[in-house]
Amino acid sequence: MANRREFISTATLTAAGIALAPLVACSQEPAAGAAAPAAAAPKPFKGPLLTRAVPATGEKIPVIGMGTSGSFEVGTDAAGRAPLGEVLDTFVGAGGSLIDTAPTYSTAEDVLGDLIADAKVRQKLFIATKLSGVSGREEGLAQFNDSLRRLKTDKVELLQVHNLRDTAVQIALARELKQQGKTRYVGLTHYREDGQAQLAAEMRQHKPDWVQINYSPVSRGAEKTIFPLAQELGIAVMINRAFEDGRLISQMRDKPLPPWAAEVGADSWAQLILKYVLSQPAVTVVIPATSKARHQLDNLKAGTGQLLDAKQRDALVAAMA
Ligand SMILES: NC(=O)c1ccc[n+]([C@@H]2O[C@H](COP(=O)([O-])OP(=O)(O)OC[C@H]3O[C@@H](n4cnc5c(N)ncnc54)[C@H](OP(=O)(O)O)[C@@H]3O)[C@@H](O)[C@H]2O)c1
After folding, report:
1. Residue 59: which residues within 8 A CB-CB, separation 6 or more?
2. Structural domains for the chain
3. For 184, which DSSP code?
4. CA-based, 20 to 30 A from 164: which of 14, 207, 294, 299?
């Protein structure tokens, strides 16, 4: 664990705004034979992270959150979990707070709950989980109580109805749990363009505190429906699948960054994509998922400095079309 401890102090110092040597010297180097980054050595993280307010309360949320689908779905072995401990340490050390999970992401809630307890960081986090794939109040309640046990907590910050399943019943349950102090906010989620019309209708009907939806330079449907509606109704917006499950980054891997990337302080395609997403004023937080601390640090850097102007956003869309 010596390496992990060393990493924590590095991340913490960096979050405090102290410029450190780039992490290229640490053990999270890409494996030999992996594609070399096109740019020079990456810049260190220099915080603080930008924040955005939740319309319902004014609470400030750091704009870079993290997802757990896929990335946190590992077993109990130390080899699988240690890199995720570093992912969490890096996130918290940089001032990150919002983590999205779900009871139906196989082991993700268990892994997250254990790592949060080990690192003793629960009070620094905003945990968002879901009522997922359940029908009826009793099934939803049993699933939520199990989520609390798995996450090793007595409440969460946000409880979302996953993918519009049994929405009326499950959002009523989420509101009941909000009344009891078991969650501070309620939300609705979807993850595809073809779910956005129904999501918009349910936003109008149920007026949740939060909505979660997909958005990226190649999936821009939310600009037409979800973003303006969220602003009209005062709903916070969480963005999933900004990297299209990683495909967008793979597609751009060997291409040089545009010359204007340095103007916005970006030294990777991942940062440009996240800055693109955050350039939408309706967006509150984006939740890229990663299993690697060096990618976490890369993603966190997108939440500092300048965002993209309209011309830069158009150029990024054209580069990725
Ligand atoms: N309906 C819903 O409510 C719903 C649906 C989908 C997703 N979600 C939520 O949204 C989160 C994000 O979506 P997602 O996981 O589907 O996809 P994503 O964030 O678009 O992409 C994740 C992929 O990007 C890679 N990656 C992350 N950071 C990188 C970096 N800096 N450089 C290179 N590669 C990087 C990861 O690989 P490495 O591990 O190698 O970094 C992973 O394969 C999920 O985890 C989940 O919490 C919710």
Report:
1. 53
2. 49-319 (3.20.20.100)
3. E
4. 299
Q: Which pLDDT tens digit goes with each residue over 238-275?
A: 999 999 999 999 999 999 999 999 999 999 999 999 99
CA–CA dist 264, 283 (Å, integer): 19
SS3 of the chain: CHHHHHHHHHHHHHHCCCCCCCHHHCCCCCCCCCCCCCCCCCCCCCCCCCEEECCCCCCEEECECECCCCCCCCCCCHHHHHHHHHHHHHHHHCCCCEEECCCCCCCHHHHHHHHHHHHCCHHHCEEEEEECCCCCHHHHHHHHHHHHHHHCCCCEEEEEEHHHCCHHHHHHHHHHHHHCCCEEEEEEECCCHHHHHHHHHHHHHHCCCEEEEECECCECHHHCCHHHHHHHHCCEEEEECCCCCCHHHHHHCCCCCCHHHHHHCCCCHHHHHHHHHHCCCCCCEECCCCCCHHHHHHHHHCCCCCCCCHHHHHHHHHHHC
Q: Whose CA is nearest to atom 4 of ligand 1?
A: 191
Tell me, in angstroms, the distance from the centre of ligand 1 to residue 179's CA: 32
- Which residue's alpha carbon is at the smallest distance from atom 25 of ligand 1? 246
For the stretch 289-313, what's the b/e string if a residue is b when 16 or more beta carbons lie within 10 angstroms of its beta carbon? bbbbbbbbbbbbbbbbeebbeeebb
Question: Tokens standing for 12?
Answer: 């913490």
Under 8 Å between Cβ of 308 and 274: no
Measured CA to CA, the distance from residue 290 to residue 249 in angstroms comes to 12
| Rounded distance between C-alpha atoms, residue 242 and residue 213, angstroms | 10
Is the minimum distance from the CB of 292 to ligand 1 under 6 angstroms? yes
Query: Ligand 1, residues 245, 294, 298: which to mutate, most atoms within 8 A of Cβ?
Result: 245
Q: How would residue 176 be classed by pLDDT, with cut points 50, 70 and 90?
A: very high
